[in-house]
Automatic annotation (TrEMBL):
Source species, domain of life: Eukaryota
Transmembrane residue ranges: 60-82, 88-108, 115-132, 144-161, 206-224, 244-265
Keywords: Membrane, Transmembrane, Transmembrane helix
NCBIfam families, sorted: VC0807_fam (NF041646)
The keyword Membrane is annotated on this UniProt entry: yes
Protein name per the record: 16919_t:CDS:1
Length: 291
């Protein structure tokens, strides 16, 4: 191998000397032809499916399905059944579809969350208490109790508990991360979305602060929702009005929280993007100075 390498080097040097001596003759050294691998359209990677858009569509469909199963369908069932049977039985039967949804979710997807367990527990407890006492309003109390419990859980997750590798994080952050929402910039196009969330959480204080604020707002709002619903339940004259006013109040209250979340996130997103650009510009400037 050394023989061939040395002979090739000598021939190339002689050729260069001869070519440089004759200005009229063109240099016959040939540059290697550029590789056509990247230029060939057949070898390019197919366009990647936009995971962010898919997650947004998935979240929208999931929200609409939850709205129908948890609110619209029970309301329709109660309106129809209350004409033929007692209010207690109508409330219990109309509360079955959300419970079936939780059970099916566990059977087919092998997933059950804390909210699902709380809904199932409150349904059983509310049913037993209302049947024993013969008071339909006791069944309606399951909603404010659930709301207050979820609010307390949200506030508890704000406590920076760390045990071994486990570290408590705001519940809204975990919820958003599991859904994969948010157009977070990746180090590469193929960086998984969960890894992007973890990297942003560890790197940017503005990102962490956003989820602390959202979790705190939702926690306090859901706790305040409980006494408001209790007042509606016991101040209305009939069960029908208590059901409809309770649903209307809860729907308006939650949508106000959603509206606040959208506005707040958009504002923080703009500040967050500006911060990233400043940090990138500072990093480039530092690199240029070192060079």
């Amino acid at each position: 191998m050394s023989h061939f390498k040395g002979s090739n080097q000598t021939d190339n040097e002689n050729h260069v000397i001869q070519s440089s001596g004759d200005l009229a003759s063109p240099v016959t050294l040939e540059t290697p032809a550029p590789s056509t691998t990247l230029e060939s359209p057949t070898t390019l990677k197919p366009p990647k499916i936009n995971q962010i858009q898919e997650s947004k569509k998935k979240m929208l469909l999931l929200s609409l399905l939850m709205l129908f199963v948890d609110i619209i369908l029970p309301l329709i069932l109660f309106t129809i059944l209350s004409r033929f049977i007692s209010d207690i039985l109508a409330l219990i039967i109309s509360g079955i579809p959300p419970i079936i949804s939780i059970i099916l979710n566990f059977i087919f997807r092998r997933k059950v969350n804390a909210t699902g367990i709380l809904s199932l527990t409150s349904f059983i407890a509310g049913t037993i208490m209302s049947l024993i006492q013969g008071d339909a309003r006791l069944y309606l109390l399951r909603e404010p109790i659930m709301s207050c419990t979820v609010g307390l859980v949200l506030l508890i997750t704000l406590i920076p508990i760390k045990v071994g590798s486990f570290q408590m994080r705001p519940l809204v952050f975990n919820y958003a991360k599991n859904l994969g929402i948010g157009d977070l910039k990746g180090l590469t196009e193929d960086e998984p979305i969960p890894e992007r969330w973890e990297r942003h959480w560890k790197t940017y204080a503005v990102f962490r602060r956003t989820f602390f604020v959202l979790t705190a707002v939702w926690g306090f709002a859901l706790i305040l929702d409980a006494p408001a619903r209790i007042i509606v339940i016991y101040k209305t004259k009939t069960i029908d009005r208590a059901v409809f006013f309770g649903v209307a109040f809860g729907f308006i209250w939650v949508n106000c929280l959603i509206l606040f979340t959208v506005i707040y996130v958009r504002r923080k997103k703009n500040l967050f993007e500006k911060q990233i650009k400043k940090e990138e510009a500072a990093a480039v400037a530092t690199a240029n100075k070192e060079v």
